[in-house]
Amino acid sequence: MSTLRTARAVAHSNIALCKYWGKRASDPPSLNLPATGSLSLTLDALWTETEVAPAAQDRFELDGAVHADDAARKVFAQLDRLWRAAGHGGARPAAAVRSVNHLPTAAGLASSASGFAALTLAGMAAMGGAMERGPLSALARQGSGSAARSLWGGFVRLDRGVRPDGEDCVARPLFPANHWDVRLLVVQTTSGKKAIGSTAGMERSRTTSPYYAAWVDGSDADLDRAQQALAARDLATLGAVVEHSCFKMHACMLASQPPFSYWNGTTLEVVRALWAAREAGLAGYATIDAGPHVKVLCEAATAPALAKRLGELPGVVAVQTCAPGPDASHEVLS
Ligand code: DP6
């Protein structure tokens, strides 16, 4: 088949409980191989829906607006990659990509994980290629590292792998969404302009932070401990690993030259309030990505009280409660 069909996919966003930060050397660099493995929770309330259809020329529409920028270039580079992976030769047919992010309005939450996962599924389905999730995860990773994890629901692990071709750097589901009734509170703080994109931030950490080697060295042990705690549904042990992974990553950024941080003042106030709540018997554990929002892992029963308490802090704009989300899905429309 050298033409495109029309296909649509839905992929849910994920938050890393053990973080990916830094890339290992790869040839070509577009393989996008992570220096650290990661372990994530897929979220029910945040997702991206993407349709890929034949068109007279390439066109990328995101949330109703046409883009011809860097984001569009990354989207079409991903379709080129999928075209070759589907076994087609020659030029890829032009495509219209329409994507809608179902994320809270102006939350400033990253959408690259759900976005590239949905694009990878919809694109491959439109090209008539193999829909096996493992190889698709390796392709999604080349769009954005965190996207490799969004093909599955529940709890997902992505090992960094050792092969230069990255074929062992593939995500796999550890436990389905119904394994454990946890919640992830997305505590949105007022956003400033992002200091530095995550890809550039990772590179600055790798090349200038004296903590980077320690960060990478400790990551496999964190993953194994987190997976064991997850299997045992042991929140205190899992939470300790989650915070350790998060704060080591942010310490690594602060120790870079020049230093950088994604936090604003409220980010730290939320963390301190969370720790105080924990002392008082309301157990939640913080993780923070390349942005100022705080994500809090807790049991379902604790979520309402914790969300209320954190939502009352000055500078907190909203608190959204997410449960474990489903697998990504796709359909071929015509
Ligand atoms: C802090 O997946 O956005 O969210 O591979 O360069 O696109 P690229 O990076 P990206 O980085 C995610 C970093 C993080 C941690 C995580 O999700 O594991």
Characteristics:
334 residues, alpha+beta, Ribosomal Protein S5, domain 2, Alpha-Beta Plaits, 2 domains, eight-stranded mixed sheet, 12 strands, globular, binds ligand DP6
What features would you describe in this structure?
By secondary structure, this protein is of the alpha+beta class. It folds into 2 domains: 7-178, Ribosomal Protein S5, domain 2; 182-322, Alpha-Beta Plaits (2-Layer Sandwich). The protein has helices at residues 70-85, 112-127, 133-143, 198-208, 212-231, 235-254, 265-279, 303-311; strands at residues 7-18, 38-54, 59-62, 65-67, 95-102, 155-158, 171-175, 182-189, 284-287, 294-299, 316-322, 329-332. Helix 1 packs across helix 2 (112-127) and helix 2 crosses helix 3 (133-143). The longest helix is centred in the middle third of the chain and has 20 residues, at 212-231. The radius of gyration is 19 Å and the shape is globular. Residues 16, 19-21, 32, 38, 112, 144-146, 198-199, 289-290 line the site of ligand DP6.
List strands and helices in order, with pairings.
Blueprint: E1 7-18, E2 38-54, E3 59-62, E4 65-67, H1 70-85, E5 95-102, H2 112-127, H3 133-143, E6 155-158, E7 171-175, E8 182-189, H4 198-208, H5 212-231, H6 235-254, H7 265-279, E9 284-287, E10 294-299, H8 303-311, E11 316-322, E12 329-332
Parallel strand pairs: 3-5
Antiparallel strand pairs: 1-2, 1-12, 2-5, 2-6, 3-4, 6-7, 8-10, 8-11, 9-10
Helix pairs in contact: 1-2, 1-3, 2-3, 5-6
Bound molecules: ligand DP6.
